[in-house]
Amino acid sequence: MNVIVEREKGLLELEKRIAELRTANESQPVDMAPEISALEQKYQEILRDVFGSLTPWEKVNMARHPGRPTSLDYIGRLDRFDELHGDRHFRDDHAVVGGFALLHGRPVVVIGQQRGRDTKENLRRNFGMVTPEGYRKVNRLAKLASHLGLPIVTFVDTKGADPGISSEEHAQSEAIARCLYEFTIARVPIVATIVGEGGSGGALALAIADTVIMLEHSVYSVASPEGCAAILWGDSTKAEEAASRLKLTAQDLERFGIVDEVVPEPLGGAHRDSSGSVTRVLAAIDAALGRLKALGPQKLVEERYRKYRRLGVWQTERREPIETSS
Amino acid sequence: MPAPEWLRIRRSKEGGKSDAALWSKCPDCGDVLYRPELAENAYVCPKCDHHFRMSAYDRISTIVDGDFVEIGNDVLPGDPLEWVDRKTYPNKMQADREKSGLSEAVVCGFGTIANFDVALGVMDFHFRGGTMGTVVGERLALLFEAARQKKVPCIVFTASGGARMEEGMLALMQMAKTTATVTRFVEDGNFFVTVLTDPTTGGVSASFGFQADVIVAESKAMIGFAGRRVIEQTIRQKLPDQFQTAEFLLEKGHIDMVVGRRDLKATLVRLLEYAAGGRRESEKRA
């Protein structure tokens, strides 16, 4: 059960009521405009009340909202997209979509994790959980981009890497480790956007980047809240508590220096204005690519190294912080 | 051979040994083993060949000859998330420090193995399950950077439950940090070996664990990405016993070799000999 979807139910009723009154108003002699306007005002108040400030757990649910724009909603709005398939070894993993594209006229290699938008698509896309074959496709496309000198644009949206038997048999660890390696040494600009849920190493495999963008209500976590609760307390139902401790919101991660830019969402979440949300995100990616263009390949790799080299918080024996991420 | 000075110092920190600590029961064959004898045998059960999990300093003493110069041991944990559950994170670590005699879950430094200078990183499961947080990442990063400067091979023994939950995303980012330093070390033509020991999973296996030139696994070690319980919950059935063992991974082609602990040092020496016979990338360019 998604807590955001539950909360929206009452609002949807109200929306319907306003729409009905509007239609009725057109064919009626009595002017109901004041009533409609009062209802609309109430609607906005409730919206602010319910969605004005979200807890970490509510954000987790927002990130998983079935109506939230997914990678393909962003990719579908690019000027052009030519999909490239497969890992060249075994299989084409549909939880990852990638290929050549034009973003605001700029040729790029785009790679996105894709969860399903309904049950049927979820089965085909394995709920956005990528298998080793998918990560090998990612790795191949990253190398291709580096080879051709094209920027890499990724969209991250996964609960985590696929934890199945065949994924273990096909070396999930190695597949992710290789992606981390290739993204670190890629001699082209990389911009990663966490559009929904960024789950653990399975998300990081697409998110070592020169610029990391997050949507306001996306989450990015060392483990899914359910996974964290299971690991620490042997009880995955304590996910809400885990979410409150993990510091997985865009605002927390910007403070830690893990995320470079947060793109605002409309009140109530990106899905309340999908088209506008996609436009804002693509503009942010384009702006980031514009800034990175000035850096040569060597400088890019060097700056990326420095960025990740310094991440962390620790102390020396003298109990003074010797390096922080800020 | 008498214990080297650094090891005597470390061992004296372990505190008073109770009588119970003198005996260990083998979890495989149930035999009760006299601990000093078990230590003589590299913590391998003389009866059934079960490999006990080793502490980092015991491991180092079985691998290096003579001196071991530790680096990064002044890098100590903070509490970036101000984590509290049943205990605070600093309290959890205090308990682990007392239990393991370690300041964090990895020991890094330099020593020699059969006249080869090497950089050595050894993870220890007894501290927070060998999980990788900020300090593990930073110490390993310092090790790879120093090894690259010195142009010496680097051997890392892994033992880890993955990323450390209590440090959240900063822990996950250590996968990126260690990878960054590995790429520079390897791309310069230096030799990188990992020895995967029981258990190696999650963020450690999915970063430097599987980025090495040669990947060795210790007999019967449990190695995988997802934990066994997670997979069983996902597929709702029990996994076969052999699943995710070193032997299973060898059969599937994920690792180069499986080696018993008592043959490990000799194997590493042979690997170092081969690597020393070639010419480095940097020299080829010169």
What can be said about this structure in brief?
Chain A has 326 residues and is an alpha/beta fold.
Q: How would you characterize this protein structure?
A:
The complex is a heterodimer of chains A (326) and B (286). Chain A is built from 14 helices and 10 strands. Chain A has 326 residues and is an alpha/beta fold. Chain A has 2 domains: 3-53; 61-309, 2-enoyl-CoA Hydratase, Chain A, domain 1 (Alpha-Beta Complex). In chain A, the strands form 2 sheets. In chain A, strands 1, 2, 3, 4, 5, 6, 7 and 8 form an 8-stranded mixed sheet that branches. In chain A, helix 10 packs across helix 11 (239-245). The longest helix of chain A is centred in the first third of the chain and has 24 residues, at 3-26. The radius of gyration of chain A is 22 Å and the shape is globular. The two termini of chain A are 37 Å apart. Chain B has helices spanning 5-12, 35-40, 56-63, 89-100, 134-150, 168-187, 202-205, 228-235, 246-252, 261-277, 281-285, and strands at residues 23-25, 32-34, 65-71, 76-77, 106-113, 116-123, 154-160, 192-200, 214-218, 257-259. Chain B has 286 residues and is of the alpha/beta class. Chain B is 39% helix and 19% strand. In chain B, 50% of the residues are buried. Chain B has 2 domains: 17-52, no CATH class; 54-285, 2-enoyl-CoA Hydratase, Chain A, domain 1. Chain B starts with a helix and ends with a helix. The radius of gyration of chain B is 19 Å and the shape is globular. The interface between A and B is large, with 56 and 62 residues.
Helix content of chain A: 40-55%
Mean model confidence by pLDDT of chain A: 93
| Quaternary assembly | heterodimer
CA(first)-CA(last) distance of chain A: 37 Å
Mean pLDDT of chain B: 91
- The CATH class label of the largest domain in chain B is Alpha Beta
CATH domain topology of the largest domain in chain A: 2-enoyl-CoA Hydratase, Chain A, domain 1
CATH topology of the largest domain in chain B: 2-enoyl-CoA Hydratase, Chain A, domain 1
Poorly predicted sequence stretches spanning 5 or more consecutive residues of chain A: 318-326
